[in-house]
Amino acid sequence: MCGIVGYIGGQTAVDILIDGLTQLEYRGYDSAGVAVLGPSGARRVRSLGRVRDLEAALPKRLAGKTGIGHTRWATHGAPSEANAHPHTDATERIFVVHNGIIDNARDLRVELEADGVELTSDTDTEAVAHLIARSGADTLEDAVRQTLHRLSGTYALAVIDIEHPDRIVVARNGSPLIIGVGDKEMFVASDISAVVRHTSQVVHLDDGECATVTASGFRMFSADDARAVAKSATTVDISPDELELGNHSHFMLKEIAEQPQSLERMLSGRLDERFATARLDGLNLDAQALRRFKRVKILGCGSAYYMGQMGAAMIEELARIPADAEPASEFRYRNPIVEPDTLYVAVSQSGETADTAFAVQEVKRKGGTIVGLVNVVGSTIAREVSGGIYLHAGPEVSVASTKANTHMAVGFALMALALGRVRDLSITDGTRIVKALKALPAQIAEITAMPEEIDRAAKLLAEAPSLFFVGRVRGYPTAREGAQKFKEISYRHAEAYQTSELKHGPLALISPELPTVAIVPEDELLDRNVGALHEIGARGGEIVAITNPGVDVPEAKVVLTVPKSEPELDPILLMIPTQLLAYYAALSLGLNIDRPRNLAKSVTVE
Ligand code: F6R
């Protein structure tokens, strides 16, 4: 989604803004812009396209030590220079960048036009700039607060004013915003990655909070009544190197390759071999509390939802508690029944997905217990939940999520182990799972070392306009995530089915033109799976099988084998080749792998 950057301090603002916007591009964008307050007033430059197009449009000298910048993902109004942020008022005094959606923008625009204001864009944000400029308040802070009272919807806003070049005023309601604290310089951003090169000290705004940011510090206050809010900075643990490509061709490949190390880090200190369980102190739930839950309900979106399905299967098997996953985007709209003895789990890489954050609030509002599996420390969802498991995957830049998904699946395995061991999971079975978890990083390293075979299979699949991913029971979430990854970056129609469902309809589509990726773990369903694949082969369908060593899938054109784990954890390893299949297919098609069309990394609007 859109990205915000702001700078105030001793350096040339535009340089910091462009650098920050470049870091934010992965969130999705169609246009970008900056506004800088300099010795000769304000200067705004906007452009359609990427940040490098904006950079090319900048004048040679753009002095000024206070500025704001934005990368836009069109919501109100098509991508165009006129709709790009920053937006300004009629006198070009106030400049505003905004993430989120102002729901009553249409009414506000009608009202402004009735008052004779000439609107120059189709956006909701422009109304905000006019309202601030026309508020008549004595201070910029009051003008912003008064305007916020007129808005309904979601926003992260950064505002500068020619008459107050010594400050940036920011506000948050429902869209992420942080302040980066430097030495005699301050930063504003919608995402830590935009400031991490300059400072590791950040302050997270909460909904309903505003701040005045100057070169020497910040002052937080409530949007409601201007009351001062006490907040201090926390340290973020991301090194700028983690945001670099290094010698990898794409972030997606880098992130797939990082999984063995990142998983070692995630597991470190969390496995208790003596009691054959997982140490999850961050859940803030002791053994008695964990025993109290009769059900588990997992909420997430997209790939996080599929990982929730994988997690629910692990929890049911290992802890024998009924568990299921539901898209948070659906849950939030259906007046869900929230039960006191259900453990709700929100799962999110970014911790900023609006649908998931809203679902968390809905559970809390109805008195439910909700914990999180979140990657980004200090993110909105991480701060909303009562406890959780940080995924520690490190930054994920590629829009298509890979390593964060694997960490989610492993996070659920840890949760299933902990829930199981306070119930009926024996120490022998607990030990079996602990050992298997410890082996995962090295096993994943074996898989990521076999790109040639995967590349060959990927090329075969990339030629087809449409394909199936099939798996059953434990393997079905792997198939769903495999199809999701494939369609996201190769733009090929990929659909997942339970292998068992093929004969109930989808088999009609099987032909030499429609290949199938089959998830075939060596487990108690192996014979049935292989049997279903015969039916595909008999109809001329080509098969890429992802299976374990020693399994014979006679119908398969390509067989990709992954090391065997315990049956409950096999789906995690079987997923890794699907990440690589998607990558190599998109590579062979010459597509923009890290920034697929129409998608954004972090979906902070509805
Ligand atoms: C797929 C993908 C999306 C996200 C979804 C949720 O590769 O990245 O489907 O999984 O938008 O995002 P998070 O996990 O940040 O809540």
Keywords:
binds fructose -6-phosphate; single chain; 34% helix; 606 residues
Please provide a written account of the structure.
- With 606 residues, the protein is an alpha/beta fold.
- Helices cover 34% and strands 23% of the residues.
- The chain is built from 18 helices and 27 strands.
- An eight-stranded antiparallel beta sheet has the order 3-2-4-1-10-9-11-15, with helices on one face. A seven-stranded antiparallel beta sheet has the order 5-6-7-8-12-13-14, covered by helices on one side. It has a five-stranded parallel beta sheet with strand order 19-18-20-21-22, with helices on both faces.
- Strand 12 and strand 13 (217-222) form a beta hairpin.
- The termini are close together.
- Residues 301-304, 348-350, 353, 356, 400-401, 484, 488, 602-603 line the site of fructose -6-phosphate.
Topology (SSEs and partners):
Blueprint: E1 3-8, H1 13-24, E2 31-38, E3 41-48, H2 51-57, E4 66-72, E5 87-88, E6 94-99, H3 105-114, H4 125-133, H5 140-150, E7 155-161, E8 164-173, E9 178-181, E10 186-189, E11 201-204, E12 209-214, E13 217-222, E14 228-229, E15 234-235, H6 251-257, H7 259-267, E16 271-272, E17 277-278, H8 287-292, E18 295-300, H9 303-319, E19 323-327, H10 328-331, E20 342-348, H11 354-365, E21 369-374, H12 380-384, E22 388-390, H13 403-421, H14 427-448, H15 451-462, E23 466-471, H16 476-490, E24 493-498, E25 516-520, H17 526-538, E26 543-547, E27 558-561, H18 570-588
Helix pairs in contact: 3-4, 4-5, 7-13, 7-14, 9-13, 9-16, 13-14, 14-18, 15-18, 16-18
The chain binds fructose -6-phosphate (F6R).
Fructose -6-phosphate binds at residues 301-304, 348-350, 353, 356, 400-401, 484, 488, 602-603.
